[in-house]
UniProtKB/TrEMBL annotation:
Domain Tc1-like transposase DDE: 121-263
Domain Transposase Tc1-like: 40-111
Descriptive protein name: Transposable element Tcb2 transposase
Pfam families: DDE_3, HTH_Tnp_Tc3_2
GO-annotated molecular function: DNA binding
Organismal lineage: Eukaryota, Metazoa, Ecdysozoa, Arthropoda, Chelicerata
Organism from which the protein derives: Araneus ventricosus (Orbweaver spider)
GO biological-process terms attached to the record: DNA integration; DNA transposition
InterPro entries: RNaseH_sf, Tc1-like_DDE_dom, Transposase_5, Transposase_Tc1-like
Amino acid sequence: MRKSWQKKRPLKTYWDQYQSEDSGSRRHVSGRPRVTPAEDRFLARLTRRRRSTTVPKLVADHFVASERGISATTVRRCLHNAGLYARRPVVCVPLNGRQRRARLCWAREHVSWTRQQWTSVLFTDESGFTLERDSGRLLIWREQSTRYHQSNTLERHSYRGGGIIVWAGISLGGHTDLHVFHGGTLTGVSYQDETLDPNIRPYAGTIGNDFILMDDNARPHRVVVVEDCLEGHGLERMEWPAQLPELNPIGHLWDYLGRQVTALSPPPRS
């Protein structure tokens, strides 16, 4: 197992290097100690090596290395000058070697596709919507001691009822109708009876023999009854590797539609 950076190279040694690079540039000044360019580089380098470190930890590391204390505000200013800002990290799923190779093969296969080839693809997906205003960051203006006044309360069922699942398909040449699964859940049978037969098959007929269906690896899409239905009607499905990032463009449509629904006042009831 590879040793950690702290054990491999002590902070004091690392600090001495930067002090030697900046020797002669520091002069004595009265008042509160200021951070030298060497200290700026020291803090920035530590942060880039340990992206999840905190400002208090950097203050402590700086004191261990230089035996001189600085404030948290000074550390933040040094990092900002170096172009480093505290942001939420991008979250991704862990991938094994087989999944990485499958992603790469899929990308290489489709990177050179022409517009005509993509025109034959119908991108489909489902999305859940709630008929209640679902925002934990909703703010109101109220006076002190009026928290429980009727005008300052928001009625909402504890069981979060009113949710629906909506399905749709889009392509470069058109789109299907929106379909609502009134049962609130999606199964392989409902996916076949309510989308494949009444929506996907007629749309495939308008495109012709080059038609390709793109749906993700959700369990209702991959059950035997759905596979048999697609094979029986000669409908080709695009291969979609496991854990593939969200490349379906219909996701942008759901995001836009969700924002529009949330902005409705009063919220929809049906």
